[in-house]
Amino acid sequence: MKKNLFTNFVTCGLLGWCMECFWTGLGSFRSHKDPELTCHTSLWMFPIYGSAALLTPICKRLKNTNALIRGGIYTICVFLTEFCTGECLKKFKACPWDYSKAKWNIKGVIRVDYAPLWFLMGLFFEKILLSKKTIL
Question: Is 55 exposed, middle or buried (0-12, 13-18, 19+ CB in 10 A)?
Fold first, then answer.
C-alpha cells in the first residue's frame, strides 16, 4: 500500500489509540490497583491522534535538525492541537479528558507535566511518518 495522507492518518490514529489504552490501563493500576489494567478512551481521540499525519511536511523539513529541537517543536504542536481540540470539544460537553485537578494544567485541557511524553510521542510519530513502509 502506498503511503499518503489517508494511510498516515489511519496509522497515527490507531497508534495513538493503542498508546492511550496502554497509558490509561497503567494509570488504572496505579490509581485503583486494578489488576485488569482497564483502559479508557474516546472515539474523538482517533481523529485527534490521526491529525499527527499533518506533521509530515514539518517532519520532512526538520529531518536533519537536532532531536531536541524536533521533539520540542512536536511537543508545541501537540500542545496546540490538544488545547484547540479540548476547548472546542468542551463547548459541546464532549471533551474526553479533564486535567483540571492536575497541578500543572492549563484550562483543564493541557498538562504541562506531560511535555516529556509528547516529546517522545512526536519523535515516534516522526519515525512512522518518514518511514518508507506502511504499518497497515
Answer: buried
